[in-house]
Design brief:
This protein is mostly helical. It is 74% helix and 0% strand. It has helices spanning 2-31, 48-79. It is flat, with a radius of gyration of 25 Å.
Length: 84
């Protein structure tokens, strides 16, 4: 029974912290100052394709880096003789 009380208290604290973060973010968004008129662009127009291809390459290399050890271990287990 005591464990259930701790669990309910933990869930309540977690959701309370989560809701307070959402409330703070929305409040900060209303108080944000607008961009100044003299703000210059940080990139040229029509350069979205370059950035998206870099992101795609990074995601693919990350997935390959995550899957390569698992594939190698699976291949080693498949190739090893069984001890039955």
């Amino acid at each position: 029974m005591k464990g259930l009380l701790y669990f309910v208290a933990y869930i309540a604290l977690f959701f309370g912290a989560f809701l307070s973060l959402i409330w703070r973010d929305r409040r900060k968004r209303r108080m944000r100052k607008p961009f100044p008129v003299n703000l210059r662009l940080l990139r040229m127009p029509n350069t979205f394709g370059d950035e998206s291809s870099k992101i795609t390459k990074a995601i693919c290399s990350g997935l390959l880096a995550m899957l390569a050890p698992m594939l190698l271990a699976g291949g080693a287990l498949y190739a090893s003789p069984s001890s039955t």
